[in-house]
Amino acid sequence: MDKIDIKNLTLEELKNKIKRFSIPTYRASQLFDWIYKRRALEFSEMNNISLGLREKLDRYYYIGSIGLKERLRSSDGTEKFLFELSDGNFIETVLIHAQTRNTLCVSTQVGCKYGCVFCASGTRGFVRDLSPSEITDQVLSAQKITGDRITNLVFMGMGEPMDNYENVASSIVIMNSQEGLGIGSRKITISTCGVITGIERFARLGLQANLSISLHEADNKKRSALMPVNKKFPLERLIESCELFIKETGRKITLEYVLIKDKNDSIINADGLSNIARKLKAKVNLIPYSPVYSKSFESPSQKALNQFKDRLIKNKINVTVRDSKGKDIQAACGQLALVKARP
Ligand code: SAH
Predict the structure, then answer these.
(1) What pLDDT does 114 receive?
(2) Residue 96: φ, ψ to 5°
(3) Where are the CATH 3.20.20.70 domain residues in the chain?
(4) I want to staple 196 with a disulfide (CB 3.0 to 4.6 A). Which of 54, 111, 138, 241 is the partner?
(5) pLDDT digit string, tens, across residues 55-79
(6) What is the CATH number of domain 67-341?
C-alpha cells in the first residue's frame, strides 16, 4: 500500500482516517500540533506518542515537505523562494514584508493552463496541480527559513487556484484551523482569472476569506483577446458568480486591474471598469504591468496611470495602486515562471 502524505488531510479527514486504524480521534489534534506547530518532519520525533503508535503511523503515512533550492532577497526586503517538489518540479513563493504583516504569495500549480497573453506563468504550459501539503508547506517552509510568522496569505503565485479547487480549499481549511497554522480566514485571499465554477464553490465554502478577480478588461471581446478564459466564462457570467459570492459571504470583492500601456489604460477602459466595480460595490486595485522577458507588453506611463486612477476616483470608485515589490528579483505578480524545468 502506498503511504499517504498526512499533510494532505484536514483535521476532520485525519480523525476519520485514524478511527479506521483504531487510533483514538484526539490523536489527530496531537498530530496536527506536532506537524504544524512544532514542525516535526518525522513521526519518530513525536515523543509524547507511544512507540507502537508512531510505528503504526509510519506504516500508513509520511510527512511530506518541499525543499528550498534558492532564496533571493530584494533590496526592498521582499524575498523569493524557489522550492523543489518531491518529483523534481519547481515552484516559487514570494514573501512581502510590511510593517504590521508578512504576506506570503503562494503557488497552486506547476505552470498554468489559462495562457493570459501578458503573463509569464503560462508560457511553458501546465504541468500539474499542487497537493494541499505542497501548498501548505510553502507557508511552513517560509516561516522556518525566515523565522517570521506569516500573517497574510494570497493565492497569487503561479497557477490558477480555482482550477485546483479541492486542494486549495483543503489547504485553506488546514491553514485556517487553530490546530493547524491558525491564519484567520479574513487574512486569506484567493485570486482568480475568472474560473466561475471555482468561485461558486468558494462562495459556498462558508469561510470569511477574500476573493480577488483578475479583471484587466471590462469589454468582452478585448478581455477574450487578453485572457482566453473569458471565452468560456464571459463577463456577464463572471459578474453573476461574484454577486453570488457577495451574497453568500457578505464579503467585498477586489477587482485587480493590470494596466498595460496602450492596451487597457485609456479613459474608456477606466469607465468600463468603473461600471463593473459599481455594480459589484468592489474595490479596484491597479497594478502597473511588470514587463516579462519575451513579451512585448509595457508598463503604462506615470501620466496614464494617474489619469486612469483619477478617472476612477471621479467615478467614485474606491481605488488603490499596488506598489511594485521585489523588482530586482523578478518577484512581481505574473513573473513567476518555471525557472527550472525538471532535471
Ligand atoms: N491565476 C490567478 C492567480 C495569479 S495572480 C489569477 O489570474 O488571478 C497573479 C496576478 O498578477 C493576476 O492578477 C495576473 O493577471 C497578474 N499578472 C500577470 N502577469 C503580470 C505582469 N507581468 N505584471 C503585473 N501583473 C501581472
Answers:
(1) 96
(2) -110, 120
(3) 67-341
(4) 241
(5) 999 999 999 999 999 999 988 889 9
(6) 3.20.20.70
